[in-house]
Write a structure and sequence with these properties.
Blueprint (H helix, E strand, L loop, with lengths): L5 E7 L4 H12 L3 E5 L9 E7 L14 E4 L5 H4 L9 E3 L3 H19 L2 H9 L15 E5 L3 H12 L3 E6 L8 E5 L3 H8 L2 E4 L13 H6 L4 E5 L8 H9 L3 E6 L19 E3 L9 H17 L14
Parallel strand pairs: 1-2, 1-3, 3-4, 4-5, 6-7, 6-9, 7-8, 9-10, 10-11, 11-12
Helix pairs in contact: 1-9, 3-5
Bound molecules: NADPH dihydro-nicotinamide-adenine-dinucleotide phosphate.
The site of NADPH dihydro-nicotinamide-adenine-dinucleotide phosphate has 30 residues, from helix 5 and strand 7.
Length: 314
């Protein structure tokens, strides 16, 4: 291994550099220094990039890049770029991040399962509107996407006793979850689910997948949760399904355009809760060891973890 100093360049408009630097410093070793993109004076020394949505042309400055690490789990914006260098791309896949997402999904499922939108609306009218609770086992939840985050979310939902089903491209086995796979399975799943949770990555195959036809196939009165990417959903079709009362409500964390426009009908449709894309976030302390391990793998010629497939887009 050579001892030439190397730079890990950091770019994010959302994440604090100081916190990531403090978390990574104990793991990186003396050879790798970490710098914010604006502070880099020797672009040739940059071997690794830890980035979240860097500006257009960002990578051209660094001719010796060997690894791009996406500062988050969703890689759709990164892999869609034309200027991505031909080096391995990895993403964060961190148990704390998965736990945070599972907490959000569980909250959203319980919100609909326990009819909370109904009680909130009744409270606004000062009305005692008793609705008998249904046992979890009688409520079917479909989790679309069983990746690092989706799988834990589905498992946590199943642990609460819900009749839990999952959907992915390949066969999966998860405790308590009935797993389905392949294009044909999804229509049946949508038709039987009381609550559908979208945990699908945004790829050319999932873009607009949940359209008017999909919402139309959902069970009357079903609820919808989206915690992955807005573009998987046709928002106008979702708004129509909610407006028509075909869907009883939705919990939405992600949108085609963020921030969600003030004039979006979704803000005020009955039973809809909007949260500003925070179901789960990258956490410096728990993600630092895997970032450093991947840098070491590049230095020593080892295997990378959490590699993104450019072909599949996730
Ligand atoms: P992964 O990339 O680990 O897994 C994706 C899952 O979706 C896999 O199970 C995959 O199937 C399945 N899938 C992909 N394409 C299809 C398809 N066409 N049909 C059926 N299933 C498909 O994703 P994660 O679970 O880690 O994360 C999911 C998404 O959550 C991220 O892509 C990101 O967009 C979003 N996210 C949102 C955050 C927020 O705060 N709201 C925070 C972090 C992430 P298979 O297993 O067969 O490959």
């Amino acid at each position: 291994m050579s001892n030439v100093p190397e730079t890990l360049v950091f770019y994010s408009a959302f994440d604090p550099f100081d916190a990531w630097q403090a978390a990574l410093a104990p793991h990186l070793g003396a050879r790798v220094r970490m710098q914010e993109a604006d502070a880099v004076t020797d672009p040739g020394s940059v071997r690794y990039a830890l980035v979240w949505m860097p500006p257009e042309g960002f990578f051209a400055r660094f001719p010796n890049l060997e690894l791009v690490i996406n500062l988050g789990a969703g890689v759709d914006r990164l892999v869609a770029r034309d200027d991505l260098p031909d080096v391995p791309i990895t993403r964060l896949s961190d148990p704390e991040m998965a736990r945070m997402m599972a907490g959000y999904v569980l909250f959203a499922v319980l919100r609909h399962a326990r009819d909370i939108p109904h009680f909130e609306a009744a409270q606004a009218r000062r009305e005692w509107a008793y609705r008998h609770p249904r046992p979890a086992a009688e409520i079917t939840v479909a989790v679309l996407g069983l990746g690092e985050l989706g799988a834990l979310a589905a498992t946590e939902v199943a642990r609460q006793g819900f009749d839990t089903h999952g959907w992915a491209t390949r066969p999966r086995e998860l405790p308590g979850v009935v797993c389905h796979h392949g294009g044909d399975a999804v229509d049946d799943l949508l038709a039987r689910a009381d609550i559908t949770v979208c945990m699908l990555p945004l790829t050319p195959r999932t873009s607009g997948l949940l359209d008017a036809g999909a919402f139309g196939r959902m069970k009357p009165g079903a609820a919808f949760v989206n915690a992955s990417r807005g573009e998987v959903v046709d928002e106008a079709a979702l708004a129509d399904a909610l407006r028509a009362g075909h869907l009883s409500g939705a919990t939405l964390d992600v949108f085609v355009r963020e921030p969600l426009a003030a004039d979006s009908p979704l803000w005020s449709l009955p039973g809809v809760l909007i949260t500003p894309h925070l179901a789960s976030v990258a956490l410096p302390r728990s993600a630092a060891p895997q970032i450093a391990a991947n840098i070491r793998a590049i230095q020593q010629g080892g295997d990378l973890a959490n590699v993104v497939s450019r072909v599949h887009g996730y």
